[in-house]
Amino acid sequence: MTFHQETSSPSLTPTKICVFASTVAGHSPIHLASARSLAGLLHARGIHLVYGGGTTGLMGALAKERVRLGGKETVVGVIPTALLGTERGASNPSQPVRKGETEAENSWVDKVRLKLGLKNKDQKAAAGKSPKITAVASASLVSEDIYGLTIPTDSLSARKELMISLVANAGAGSGFLALSGGFGSLDEIMEVVTFRQMGLHQKNMVLYNVDGYWDGLVAWMENAIEKGFLREQAREMLLVRGNAEDCVDALQVGSVSEPLATGKNQEDH
Questions:
Q1: Which helix (H) or strand (E) holds 49?
Q2: Cα separation of the two ends of the chain
Q3: Dihedral-angle region of residue 116 (phi above 0 means left; psi in -120 to 50 means alpha; beta otherwise)
Q4: pLDDT tens-digit profile of 4-38?
Q5: Backbone phi, psi, residue 266, to 5°
Q6: 230 within 8 A of 267, measured Cβ to Cβ
Q7: How does pLDDT run across 174-203, given as a tens digit for each residue?
Q8: Which residues, including other chains, have CB under 8 Å from residue 149's CB and lie 6 or more apart?
Q9: If 0-12 CB within 10 Å is exposed, 13-18 middle and 19+ buried, where does residue 152 land?
Q10: Is this model's pTM higher than 0.85 or not?
């Protein structure tokens, strides 16, 4: 699996930043404020948002603010169907979300693919294998007017594959950013780093270290370098910044030069 990056008409492809974040707000108001500030900066720079499709916590605040400022076309949320029915904005969250059972619903999937720049379901997508997008009843979808376009997937792995594909094939300056979050956010940013290490994409990645939230992860990385389980180039691969502007700037300066997983005695992946 390689997340092929398009080279034709790059100026016509918007810059997209995929933000991994929590569906809770945390105890300190600084985390919500930072999410909204990031949304404002993305709007100011004309950058589109890709995120995990949640409607609460940092995810919800980020998406709502980006849509409020720039419109629903600037946000794509990707979420497993198992989680979609519980999201705020779904018309009947007590009812399970069902897979597409009609020609109209399955046609909706193809329209989504076209809108996202993916090929139709009978063709290979940019990643080499088309990520699975699940048709669901339109009444169960999260409101586009509030949270942007919501794309349901069959699984967590399909969700991550689609999110990575959308960014890997986006315009210059696109990349991945981790706001404060729990196990899910950590899993997502680590998978993106691992894929970059393997040479499957060429985009930058940054930790938005709000109020020192990621200090423990940074300390782990430094310890891994000291103990010989990571090379020193790891510091250039997963960047760490303390404010929104520095984070976005770090993603704009180009990609790291080469995969780290080459030769012998490389890091685990």
A1: strand 48-51
A2: 15
A3: alpha
A4: 554 444 456 899 999 999 999 999 999 999 999 99
A5: -90, 175
A6: yes
A7: 999 999 999 999 999 999 999 998 989 999
A8: 72, 73, 75, 76, 77, 112, 115
A9: buried
A10: no
